[in-house]
Amino acid sequence: MPSPSITIQQRKTVSRRHRRLNDKTLAFLLITPPVLFLLLFTLYPILRVFWMSLHQISVSQPWLGTPFVGLDNYAEAMKDTRFWHSTGFTLAFSLVTVVFEIGFGLFLAIIANKTFPFRSFVRAAILFPWALPTVTNALTWRWMYNSDYGLFNGLLMQWGWIAKPINWLGSTDLAFIAVCIVAIWKTSSFMAIILLGGLQSIGHDIYEAAHIDGASRTQAFFLITLPLLKNVFLVALVLRTMHSLQAFDLMFGLTQGGPGNSTESLPMYIHTKAFIDLEWGYGSALGVLLFVIIFAISMLYLKFLYEPE
Amino acid sequence: MSRKRFLAALLGTAMILPACSGGGADGSSTAASGSDNPAKTKAPVTIEFAAGLDSSGEMAKSIDRFNKAHSDIQIKYVELPQVPNEQLTRYTTWFNSKSKTPDLLLTDVTWPKMFASAGWIAPIDEYVDAEYLKQFYPAAVDVAKIDGKQYGIQGWVDVGMIYYRKDLLEKYNQQVPKTWDELEKVSQEILKKENDPNLVGYVFQGAKIEGATINWLEFLWSNGGDVFDANGKIKVDTPKAIQAMKKMYDLVQTSKVSPVSVATSSPNDNQIVFGNGNAIFMRNWPNSFASLKETKVNGKYDVMPIPQFEGGKSQPSTGGWVYAINSSSEHKKEAAEVMKFFLSDAEQKSLVIQTSKIATNRKALADPEVASKQPISIKAQSLLETAKSRPALRAYEQFSRAMQTQINLALNGQKDPEQAMKDAQKEIDKIKE
Predict the structure, then answer these.
(1) Is B243 a domain residue?
(2) Residue B41: pLDDT band by 50, 70, 90 thresholds?
(3) pTM of the entire structure?
(4) Structural class in CATH, domain A85-283
(5) What CATH number corresponds to the domain at position B333?
(6) B112 closest CA partner among B320, B346, B380
(7) In sequence order, what are the residues at sequence separation of 6 or more whose Cβ sits closer than 8 angstroms to the Cβ of residue B286?
(8) Do residues B375 and B237 both lie within one domain?
(9) Which of A49, A133, A246, B241 has a Cα-to-Cα distance from A240 of 20 to 30 A?
(10) pLDDT at residue A223 in the model
């Protein structure tokens, strides 16, 4: 234990110093810990991944060392059919899900924006799929899709619509659709919440003015609602696209990337290479490539959709 | 000016903080100097033992028994997550930084070759002789025998077996099948006579998981084949391997004795189907034997060995966990002693009775008390003599993933079986050994 005299002395120094702190110093002091934290836990790992992607690091083969290989890992990725396949899947998945999510999300948001009994209950219910962890969703849906004891086949056969069970996750096309359905079901609600925020920020007076000027409801929707939602759309689009390009847990829980490798997303492939095959150099290079893809798409969105107010 | 003062204050705090905990540090330093004194008794060696979370609690009890009985060695249990891949990440991080702990660890049966060739685990030949190793089933020893050196011993074992509906076979006067063709015929016969649209013949694991590789290996081995050619190279496009794949494919796509859903099935999915009384045969692991008691088919099922091809030999695949010693450990000798304790007759016997796991120690598994409390142990005994470990490969995961992907595509009917094996071979040729 320190002697009490030191503590008191220390306290005196602190309080004396406190009185003389100016705003600039105070700001500097307050901002230092988070900046250090970010440098250490965000910037350093990012730079380290870039550095690793330029080396051959095969953890389970320590005798190879970690030689600098320049862009070899990237060159290998360009020749890697699984990289191209998983990238293609990820892009197709993102395109399909984001388009449908925006559609359903807008629909849900408009419903939730109307005044009707139990509105708050409905709003909460809309959020429900989004509130569940993706892996839980994936496993629940896997159960429902199951060809032997799943809900869908059970219902369809009971109604006599199909004679033989359908293997929902067993063929390439069906599995792609099945994965997309779960993603759309889950994240439309996220879109709805963001768009609902946008809808509520549009004042009633604008609609009233349009009504007086003789605008129909459809006209009001396309000429007032959609344009005024543009920036909210942009935020939702960028967030959702980034998320779906990073999708891992859904496919991992639902199909493990099967059948074959048909539903393997790029993040899944990165995980496999880096953490199962322990090829950290190559895995890092794939990670950097994913980063480049996400960055490029985000830039495109900004270029075409962003309008400073 | 104020900045300098602030720095001074910061320094002041930095100096006081350690002083606060100074009491503890001082205390431990005196204790440390005390242990240097040869007159005092030696401090016990602590063996850090890393293993996945054990929900049965038997591991912790076993460690307690050891710690109570020993004053010179104490075991510290380092609990790892249950998911094997998470454990692999931990081990990789430790070994990559040459950590001295854990001293003793449990590895999945497919890891010893990778760990040994990276120099992460130490040979144990100086602690175990041939006589000692004879107490265990061959697969439990072979699993960690790499380039003539012993790198570990398997602690418990899973072994592939076929569950079948005793009642249905009896009802239609069918013999328990010994070959794949017989299994196909018996299934067709019963399916025809039962005429139940929900009933299927044979369910197994064909999803894109490790289970697909294991099931295919069992078909291959029961056909007298292997994945290694005469030069020790992996060859999966051999006639025998293609035949094995073709048989699996035919069961699903030609005779349709197996439902196409096996291409998305895990062991758990199979167990649900079988447990609901909707399958005649099922390939699964020993743990289903107890779990199926809680289902509709309680009392109606039994187990039989994996069938074989005409002229082949039934060889079930094994799973389970292997004890190995960290090559950077400073207490390898003591770690070996702890390992031998876990593998001793008494501990292995308790393991079977308490957890229904299958011991690798022959004597423990054959114990009458074990047999009466865990009937599966008797059934497993005969299977274990011919059981085989999966191929010891440095990049086993890569090999297996190539296989899983192709087997899965063939079972789905999306690829010709022969083409699937050829494509798998192409993937495997890319692995840098």
Answers:
(1) yes
(2) low
(3) 0.82
(4) mainly alpha
(5) 3.40.190.10
(6) B320
(7) B158, B159, B161, B356, B358, B376, B379, B380
(8) no
(9) A49
(10) 86
